[in-house]
């Protein structure tokens, strides 16, 4: 049975990039995976620092999503690897949440983000769920495996599990 997550207050809230599980990566400390991910959109610029200094993950996301400053030229090509590095480091750094992730066994992990069809499953379940896929890859790597069979090729479609009000049953 799939494991759904979205907000930090959910049962699996530690899977959210907004969870307050900081880590060191790239020679500095990041208070959340969201801070790291959003800052990397502007690597090597003053705006990277502004995102890194955001007081909350929500503020980091807002700064990172602003298009007042151009994204790094290779962003689309590197964004999945940036996310992968942040997620892996976060779970390597914290034994408590690593145990939660490993405790999901081989279950499918789904970011139940109604407005996000890339990182999450989207409102209708047709999203790519890349954050869920990366979490499954990291889970497999933390177990000492190369990857879970088919994890990178899974296309999430939870449409059949959505109720009329848009919640997952």
Sheet/helix structural class: mainly alpha
How far apart lie the N and C ends?
11 Å
Give the helix tally: 6
Helix content: 25-40%
The parts where pLDDT drops under 50 for at least 5 residues are: 146-169
Strand content: 5-15%
Largest sheet: 2 strands, parallel
Strands ordered across the widest β-sheet: 1-4
Count the domains: 2
If you compute it from the alpha carbons, what radius of gyration comes out, rounded to the nearest whole angstrom? 16 Å
Overall pLDDT metric: 89
Write the element-wise H/E pattern from the N-terminal end onward.
EEEHHHHHEH
Anisotropy-based shape: globular
Number of strands: 4
Give a written overview of the molecule.
With 169 residues, the protein is mainly α. The protein has 2 domains: 1-12 and 94-169, no CATH class; 22-88, Tetracycline Repressor, domain 2. 38% of the residues lie in helices and 7% in strands. The protein is built from 6 helices and 4 strands. It has helices spanning 33-40, 46-52, 57-65, 75-93, 95-102, 130-142, and strands spanning 3-5, 23-25, 28-30, 109-111. The strands form 2 sheets. Strands 1-4 form a two-stranded parallel ribbon. Strands 2-3 form a two-stranded antiparallel ribbon. Strand 2 (23-25) and strand 3 (28-30) form a beta hairpin. The longest helix is centred in the middle third of the chain and has 19 residues, at 75-93.
């Amino acid at each position: 049975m799939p494991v759904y997550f979205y907000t930090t207050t959910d049962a699996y809230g530690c899977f959210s990039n907004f969870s307050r599980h900081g880590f060191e990566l790239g020679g500095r400390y990041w208070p959340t995976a969201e801070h790291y991910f959003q800052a990397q959109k502007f690597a090597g610029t003053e705006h990277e620092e502004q995102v890194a200094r955001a007081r909350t993950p929500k503020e980091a996301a807002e700064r990172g999503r602003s298009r007042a400053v151009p994204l790094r030229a290779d962003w689309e090509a590197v964004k999945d690897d940036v996310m992968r590095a942040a997620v892996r480091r976060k779970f390597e750094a914290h034994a408590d949440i690593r145990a939660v992730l490993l405790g999901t066994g081989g279950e499918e992990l789904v970011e139940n983000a109604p407005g996000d069809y890339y990182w999450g499953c989207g409102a209708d379940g047709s999203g790519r769920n890349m954050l869920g896929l990366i979490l499954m890859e990291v889970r497999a790597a933390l177990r000492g495996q190369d990857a879970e069979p088919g994890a990178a090729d899974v296309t999430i479609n939870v449409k059949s599990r959505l109720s009329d009000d848009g919640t997952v049953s």
